[in-house]
Amino acid sequence: MAQPLIFSTGLCSNFSGEGVEKRLSCSKWKKTPSHLKLSSCSRLNITAGYNAHPQATDIPRQWYNLIADLSIKPPPPLHPQTFQPVKPEDLSPLFPEELIKQEVTNDRFIDIPDEVIDVYRLWRPTPLIRAKRLEKLLDTPARIYYKYEGGSPAGSHKANTSVPQVWYNGQQGVKNVVTETGAGQWGSALAFACSLFGLDCEVWQVRASYDQKPYRRLMMQTWGAKVHPSPSDVTQSGQKILQLDPLSPGSLGIAISEAVEVAAANADTKYCLGSVLNHVLLHQTVIGEECIKQMEAIGETPDLIIGCTGGGSNFAGLAFPFIREKLGGKINPHIIAVEPTACPSLTKGVYAYDFGDTAGMTPLMKMHTLGHDFIPDPIHAGGLRYHGMAPLISHVYELGYMEAVAIPQTECFQGAIQFARSEGLIPAPEPTHAIAATIREALKCRETGESKVILMAMCGHGHFDLPAYEKYLQGSMVDLSFSEDKIRESLAKIPQLVS
After folding, report:
1. Which of 205, 310, 349, 436 could join 210 in a cystine, given CB atoms 3.0 to 4.6 angstroms apart?
2. Residue 192 lies in a domain
3. Concatenated DSSP letters for 153-213?
4. What's the CATH number where 432 sits?
5. Cis (ω within 30 of 0) for the bond into 125?
6. Residue 213 has what pLDDT?
């Protein structure tokens, strides 16, 4: 049987703080605009605006597909055996029919099922918060806002896509879903969704993360998931890696291979993933759609939009709706993707067709990649460990609608400490990259005197990532980078195709 397609996952309860009202039930949101709060004791004076425009607090009823508004469409994924564009039926061993339709559609908007919105109401709409204490700490005229996604039960933005993915699988009669996870955010979100809809969940967690973050594993198990360290001895893909390196720290590419192998071999099992693919990025656009309404309600327009990128779902979720507005000539924000110097797919990788996994079981995708067998050092604490970047983000980057920077992890955690000690929230390692870039831009504003509006994606909390903070606080965290020779060695193994 021809091998199917895939990509990867792997990148971040409720916020409460001084002066913030207790979160209200969804039925009261239109009357009390409490989801837009300052992190200081005062609140934005926008009550009248919200009463006049109650739609500003609604959960979006549709997901947005950026492809529909791009004059140049992204290159198609290729079948790993024939090198021809993948057909929808090639994906059927892995995904339910509705998700395949979403993966390949050019429709501009996709209706969100009522059952999914009912679950979204557990944490959506999410708050847009002005970081006034951080502004004061930095002595900057910039106005900093962050869209906080850590209020979901799993503690990150990942639940925005895990819920619809599991629901669509359940509607097709699927009994089991499998996946990979890096830092554990995605695995936690999928386990949560499976517990709601009664599906069995099996997760391959990157070995380095499995060892470093036992509480993420316990979250998954509490919600009923079965969790394996990857590489594992329960799949052929894992066994081959362990034969070559019994102490392998694992990678998302390896974990993907293991999950895909199990899904392809079992008719009652499908594969879910937390980033990279079009339908995953689509589901995350509820973030940006809400944020556009929230910023309009307070009369602000972002000059800078900043988000972290590993596979790209969090960044795309915030940025894509704003790119639509930019393409329409309504706004002109500067959009920045921030990645770690330890895994710099956008800034150091090449734009080429490559496998989404290490074993070469997935389709070939045109993306920015470091090579499908690239394995980040296990001491890299900041999440964002995938070897490639979402093909759609890679395409948007090539079109010039955004730019990318790589920041070392010590600077990221320094920014995280500043954020935690001023705003109160402890960020997950992933959004520390966005925080560090935001601080850089805010300090530039201090030098120039410009009062720019900076909008940042804050994709989750770091309550289960405290060992990384311990390393930083103890002074044992080090910056990682890779020699050009190592990167060239990894890139040399990319399939040589005319693209």
Report:
1. 205
2. yes
3. TTSBTTHHHHHHHHHHHHHTT--EEEEEESSSHHHHHHHHHHHHHT-EEEEEEEHHHHHH-
4. 3.40.50.1100
5. yes
6. 85
What digits encode the pLDDT tens for the residues 24-38? 333 333 333 333 333
> Quick check: is 289 in a domain?
yes
Return the pLDDT at 7.
33
Last residue of a domain, one of 256, 272, 288: 272
Residues 393 and 476 in one domain: yes
Residue ranges, the chain, pLDDT below 50: 1-56, 499
For the whole model, what pTM was predicted? 0.86
User: Residue 247 sits in which domain range?
Assistant: 64-111+157-272
Instruction: List Cα–Cα distances, 161 to 136, 144, 193, 244, 380, in angstroms.
Output: 35, 27, 9, 35, 26
Residues 104 and 161 in one domain: yes
Co-location of 120 and 198 in the same domain: no
Dig out the tokens for 309 from the structure: 């990128």
In the chain, how many domains are there?
Answer: 2
Structure tokens at 414: 């320094």
Q: What confidence tens digit (pLDDT) does each residue in 15-65 have?
A: 333 333 333 333 333 333 333 333 333 333 332 223 333 344 689 999 999
Cis geometry, peptide bond prior to residue 427 (ω within 30 degrees of 0) = no
pLDDT in tens, 281-336: 999 999 999 999 999 999 999 999 999 998 899 999 999 999 999 999 999 999 99
Q: Which of 272, 294, 319 corresponds to the end of one domain? A: 272
Residues 412 and 313 in one domain: yes
Within a domain: residue 4?
no
On whether both 71 and 209 belong to a single domain, the answer is yes
d(CA 401, CA 268): 41
> How distant is the alpha carbon of residue 96 from its chain centre?
22
Asked whether residue 498 is assigned to any structural domain, the reply reads no
Radius of gyration of the chain (CA): 21
Residue 485: count of CB within 10 angstroms of its CB: 8
Between strands 109-111 and 62-64, the pairing is antiparallel
Neighbour tally for 23: CB within 10 Å: 16
Residue 90 to residue 79: CA distance in whole angstroms: 8
Q: Are residues 101 and 135 in the same domain?
A: no
**What distance lies between CA 80 and its chain's CA centroid?**
26
In contact, 418 and 399? CB cutoff 8 Å = no
